[in-house]
C-alpha cells in the first residue's frame, strides 16, 4: 500500500509541474514506488498455481499482459504533449488508482 501511495504522490508532483526540482523528485518517488511494488505480482501469480505446467503458463500470461503496456505508451506520451506529458501521467495515475482499488 505504501508503494502505491508513493507512486500516486510522485505522479501528482509530475502533473503539478511546480518546478523542475519537484518534477525531478516526483520522478524518483515514482521509481521508488514502482521498484518496491513490482515484486508482489511477480511472486503472487506463480505461487497460486499448484503444478509446474500451470505455473509456467500463468507466468507467461502475466508477462504478456505486463508487456502489453508498451502498446499504450506511445499514445499516452506523445510528442505534442511534451514537456509536461499530462495525459500520460494522468493515465498512469489512473492505473495506480485502479490497482489500489482492486487490491483492497
Structural shape: elongated
Instruction: Tell me roughly what share of residues is in helical segments.
Output: over 70%
Q: What is the helix/strand order?
A: HHHHHH
Q: What's the end-to-end separation, in Å? A: 9 Å
Number of E-state strands = 0
Radius of gyration: 16 Å
Q: What average pLDDT do the residues reach?
A: 84
The biggest beta sheet is recorded as: none
Total number of helices: 6
The total tally of domains equals 1
Beta-strand share of residues = under 5%
- Unreliable segments (pLDDT under 50, ≥5 consecutive)? none
> Helix/strand/pairing class, anyone?
mainly alpha
Give an account of the 3D structure.
The protein has one domain (2-103). Helix content is 81%, strand content 0%. It has helices at 2-16, 20-37, 39-47, 52-67, 69-76, 86-103. Helix 1 packs antiparallel against helix 2.
Amino acid at each position: 500500500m505504501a508503494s502505491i501511495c508513493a507512486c500516486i504522490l510522485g505522479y501528482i508532483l509530475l502533473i503539478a509541474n511546480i518546478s523542475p526540482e519537484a518534477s525531478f523528485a516526483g520522478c524518483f518517488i515514482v521509481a521508488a514506488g514502482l521498484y518496491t511494488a513490482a515484486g508482489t505480482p511477480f511472486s503472487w501469480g506463480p505461487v497460486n498455481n499448484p503444478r509446474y505446467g500451470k505455473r509456467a503458463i500463468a507466468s507467461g500470461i502475466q508477462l504478456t499482459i505486463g508487456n502489453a503496456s508498451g502498446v499504450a505508451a506511445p499514445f499516452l506520451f506523445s510528442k505534442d504533449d511534451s514537456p509536461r506529458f499530462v495525459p500520460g501521467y494522468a493515465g498512469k495515475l489512473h492505473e495506480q488508482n485502479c490497482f489500489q482499488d482492486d487490491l483492497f
